[in-house]
Design brief:
Number of domains of chain B: 2
CATH class of the largest domain in chain A: Alpha Beta
InterPro entries (chain A): Ald_Oxase/Xan_DH_a/b (IPR000674), Ald_Oxase/Xan_DH_a/b_sf (IPR036856), Ald_Oxase/xanthine_DH-like (IPR016208), AldOxase/xan_DH_MoCoBD1 (IPR008274), AldOxase/xan_DH_MoCoBD2 (IPR046867), AldOxase/xan_DH_Mopterin-bd_sf (IPR037165)
CATH class of the largest domain in chain B: Alpha Beta
Distance between the termini of chain A: 72 Å
Strand order of the largest sheet of chain A: 3-5-1-12-9-10-11
Strand content of chain A: 15-25%
Protein name (chain A): Xanthine dehydrogenase family protein molybdopterin-binding subunit
Bound molecules: FE2/S2 (inorganic) cluster
Oligomer: heterodimer
Radius of gyration of chain A: 27 Å
Number of helices of chain B: 5
Number of strands of chain B: 5
CATH architecture of the largest domain in chain B: Roll
CATH superfamily of the largest domain in chain B: Beta-grasp domain
């Protein structure tokens, strides 16, 4: 019997998406629907002296106006309970929601927002992370000490989470070094930018509310609604129609409760749809601006002896789910290298800017970029080719990582060699301004509980009911292959019921690249239960022994006697008069590899990397010396993902991630004037388009692990976005002869670097 | 009072004539979605950059968020819902579905409409021409690789 695993299957939801029939949240129709608009602070930091909603409430078409006075006084937050649904006494960033309106038309709602009179007393905003950490700085949250936190979170004034990772003796390591290099890198705030803006619809029936939302995380979003409105979780149903991309920007609990509150007051369904400007200013879920300081000791032969690292993350006004970034960023500072002595610390700093959180591969691209620029500089110091320098320092099986985890295997070197081969490292026949740059990195698989049900229907089809959430990547669509493999059926014979908190069992949602890894295990377990029942029933019907049966091509048959067979449909139909062919599964999450946290501090959620995967990216860039513009004609991306379950899906993730990362490398960053974003739109904040997009050479390697996901798989969604910006940075430095130490490496920054260099030479 | 600001607009969409009472400030995209229920046309930015709202107006790819409905009277308007006939996908839809030319699918209707207008003018495009031709539509998921591949496959299938 040929396995379905690793075969190419076209995704199941393609048909509805190419016909325009796929319904997204903003497409849903409701009788009596009202439209929501938010009133934002539009200033970085102020005290609210007075809010007057009387005029707004009296306006034509207006059915509800709500402020914090209408909501329970609950502080919420995943790690630190530091915020309220609406501004309470103060505003802390420009996109802070002060009030919300529901009216018959969006225009009426907007007019009513404009009619709400708010008197502010403006305060000097806290913007700079270094300044904010000084003891003399005013506080973004004067009451921070009284906030509740998750276990293990260590904080300070203006610091919602700091963490330390220590290994060996860093001073002794520096003493062994022949060279010590210190560098500082900075990255601008960047956005997830799904093409579908946020949208929420809420409708009450009695004391129960159904919320349709563009959420990546229906279960956590439901919990957020229940917590902030002080109602039982069982009174909240969260449904996600088709989701138009997320990339982390739609993780965490956001605007569902605001809309539910409006709908309750208005006694009608209410819909919120964000404009693109709101997507930039108000989503409070951006990639942190960061400052990364690295000091590394290296021997003359290129051996790394020690590293000290300090990362400051600009977390904006609230903590949100930012500590994922903190934890993962911390684990990226050693890179996939042997660093015997390490001292690293990360601070998550409150400022009066848009709150940051986990965007696809939180803490990944920016830290990998800084570390890999630094790696090339170290190679240059000791006079080694960047490839050779990496060869000498990459982790291998048997090495111990940053927190003492022992690597059972490591494909780091294989990825490096394969990428070098494909890209033709060190490259030749370069046009003027052209060069290659290389970067390596690693990522983890997130273990989490997750559940699914599988049932077989009388017509021989199957249904998977899962709590998992499809963000567009195809991970939920791919679950059908796993069930089909267990049951000797075809993936297209399964329908999937998903992203509805009333039907599927709990799942973390589309976050942390965890769907296939965790829900895949659950689906296999559920299908396994169905398999057992199916074989029992078929054995009875065929008058054969269960052990002699196999499930192939949609039939149960006696091994070696193909004529003695029954279509699965007949067994399923027959089971309707006896015991049904249903199963449930909740794969037990694998535990983290053993490691050692002595000397470390703070909440270290990712203190070891489960089923680590490795990659190497090589970018070819062209730097226009006149303008500083960087173009990227080719990227090679080699990833090892354990076991490739769905090659088309995995390849799609790599291609999409690489192109996103090119955007981060050369285009994407928010510019600020004080506490206000200067480019909150797609004209000012540019994305890579088809004309800029290079050909991406993807190669996927396998190194199945038994402490990982289904069939030895590892996480796929996030790693592809981590390495490309780093490779581009190194290529830019090689081409321009000077290094740009800020992300994005815009034309202006490259041009300035080129000029400074001329100045230095003159 | 609100009614008096509305005006009758005649639109010809996917071969069907419609008479609608709409405010003159309403965009074609909003009228297609809200008044005609054709939600296949997506809104990603409402400022003319993302291309998700692309429809065909007399065969030309137009951003429906930048055009008022009152301006669209007369010509033949085609939306993604008008591509398949009798439940049979057209060659471009087929190419995108079969070549994994989509992930979340939010950009897909706009991509399909742009591909239509582009391939009508460039029946045998090179890869570079496809990249240029599809340049006005943003996709955040696919990295464009499979969109380019799907467009090339559609060109081939049309021959
Ligand atoms: S919605 Fe029209 S171009 Fe973006
Ligand atoms: S498929 Fe998601 S934006 Fe293109």
């Amino acid at each position: 019997m040929t396995s379905l695993i690793g075969q190419k299957f076209v995704r199941g939801d393609g048909l509805e998406k190419v016909t325009g029939q796929a319904r997204y949240t903003a497409d849903l129709a409701f009788t009596g629907l009202l439209h929501a608009k938010f009133l934002y602070a539009e200033r970085a930091r102020a005290r609210i002296v007075d809010i007057d909603i009387t005029a707004a409430r009296a306006m034509r078409g207006v059915h509800a106006v709500v402020t914090q006075a209408d909501a329970p006084m609950v502080r919420y937050g995943m790690f630190v309970k530091d915020r309220t649904l609406f501004a309470h006494e103060v505003v802390r960033f420009e996109g802070e929601i002060v009030a919300a309106v529901a009216a018959e038309t969006p225009e009426q709602a907007e007019a009513a927002c404009a009619a709400i009179r708010v008197v502010y007393e403006d305060l000097d905003p806290i913007l700079d992370v270094e300044e904010a950490l000084k003891s003399s700085s005013p506080l973004v949250h004067p009451d921070w000490k009284s906030y509740q936190t998750q276990n293990g979170v260590e904080r300070g004034p203006n610091d919602c989470g700091h963490m330390t990772s220590v290994k060996g003796d860093v001073e002794a390591g520096f003493a062994e070094a022949d060279h010590i290099l210190t560098e500082t890198y900075q990255s601008d705030m960047a956005h997830a930018v799904p093409i579908e803006p946020h949208a929420v619809v809420a409708q009450w029936q009695g004391d129960k509310v159904t919320i349709w939302s563009t959420s990546q995380v229906p279960f956590p979003a439901r919990a957020g609604v229940a917590e902030t409105l002080q109602i039982p979780q069982s009174n909240v149903r969260l449904v996600v129609p088709h989701l138009g991309g997320g990339f982390g920007g739609k993780c965490d609990f956001h605007f569902e409760a605001h809309v539910a509150l409006l709908a309750r007051q208005a006694r009608r369904p209410v819909r919120l749809v964000f404009t693109r400007r709101e997507e930039f200013v108000a989503t409070d879920k951006v990639r942190h601006a960061s400052k990364i300081e690295l000091t590394t000791g290296v021997k003359a032969d290129g051996t790394i002896t020690a590293r000290r690292a300090r990362i400051l993350l600009n977390s904006g006004a609230y903590c949100g789910d930012a500590l994922f970034t903190t934890e993962i960023g911390l684990m990226m500072v050693a890179g996939p290298y042997r660093v015997p002595n390490l001292h690293a610390e990360v601070h998550t700093v409150y400022t009066n800017r848009t709150p940051a959180g986990s965007v696809r591969a939180p803490g990944g691209p920016e830290t990998c970029w800084a570390v890999e620029q630094h790696t090339d500089e170290l190679a240059r110091r000791v006079g080694l080719d960047p490839l050779e320098f990496r060869r000498r320092n990459l982790v291998q099986a048997g090495d111990t990582g940053q927190t003492g985890q022992r690597f059972i295997s490591s494909s780091a070197k294989e990825c490096l060699e394969r990428a070098a081969e494909i890209a033709g490292w060190p490259g030749k026949d370069f046009a003027p301004g052209e060069a290659l740059g290389i970067a390596v990195g690693w990522w983890f698989s997130l273990p989490a509980s997750s559940g699914a049900y599988v049932k077989l229907n009388a017509d021989g089809t199957g249904t998977i009911v899962t709590g998992a959430q499809e963000n567009g990547s195809g991970s939920v669509m791919g679950l059908a292959t796993l069930a089909a493999e267990e049951l000797g059926m075809r993936p297209d014979q399964f329908s999937i019921v998903y992203q509805d908190t009333e039907s599927g069992p709990f799942d973390l949602g589309s976050a942390g690249s965890q769907t296939t890894f965790n829900n895949g295990r659950a689906v296999i377990e559920a299908a396994g239960e169905v398999r057992t029942k199916l074989l029992r029933k078929a054995a009875e019907m065929l008058e054969a022994a269960e052990e002699d049966l196999e499930l192939v091509d949609g039939a149960a048959r006696v091994r070696g006697v193909p004529s003695k067979a029954l279509p699965i449909a007949s067994v399923a139909a027959a089971s309707q008069t006896s015991s049904l062919l249903i199963g449930s599964g909740s794969g037990n999450p694998p535990s983290l590899p053993e490691h050692d946290l002595s000397g470390c501090g703070g909440r270290l959620g990712y203190s070891a990397f489960l089923a680590p995967s490795f990659f190497c990216h090589i970018a070819r860039v062209r730097v226009d010396e006149e303008t500083g513009t960087v173009s990227v004609p080719e990227v090679t991306a080699v990833h090892e993902f354990g076991r490739i379950l769905n090659p088309l899906g995995a390849q799609g993730q790599v291609e999409g991630g690489v192109i996103q990362s090119i955007g981060m490398a050369v285009l994407e960053g928010s510019q600020y004037d004080g506490g206000r974003q200067l480019n909150p739109g797609l004209l000012g904040y540019k994305l890579i388009t088809a004309a800029d997009a290079p050909r991406v050479n993807v190669e996927l390697l396998e190194d199945p692990v038994d402490h990982g996901g289904p069939h030895g798989a590892k996480a796929v969604g996030e790693p592809p976005v981590v390495g490309t910006a780093a490779a581009i940075g190194n290529a830019v430095a090689a081409a321009a002869g000077t290094r740009v130490r800020a992300l994005p490496m815009t034309a202006e920054r490259v041009w300035t670097a080129l000029h400074e260099q001329e100045g230095e030479l003159a | 009072m609100a009614m008096s600001s509305k005006q009758i607009v005649e639109l010809n969409v996917n071969g069907i004539p419609h008479q609608l009472l709409v405010e003159p400030r309403k965009t074609l995209a909003d009228v297609l979605r809200d008044d005609l229920g054709l939600t296949g046309t997506k809104l990603g930015c409402e400022h003319g950059v993302c291309g998700a709202c692309t429809v065909l107006v007399d065969g030309r790819a137009i951003r429906a968020c930048l055009m008022f409905a009152v301006q669209a009277q007369g010509p033949e308007i085609t939306t993604v819902e008008g591509l398949a006939s009798d439940g049979e996908l057209d060659h471009i839809q087929k190419a995108f579905a079969e070549n994994h030319g989509l992930q979340c699918g939010y950009c897909t209707p706009g991509m399909l409409m742009t591909a239509h207008a582009f391939l009508a003018e460039n029946p045998e495009p090179t890869r570079e021409q496809i990249c240029e031709g599809m340049n006005g539509n943003l996709c955040r998921c696919t990295g464009y690789q499979n969109i380019i591949k799907s467009t090339a496959a559609a060109a081939k299938a049309a021959k």
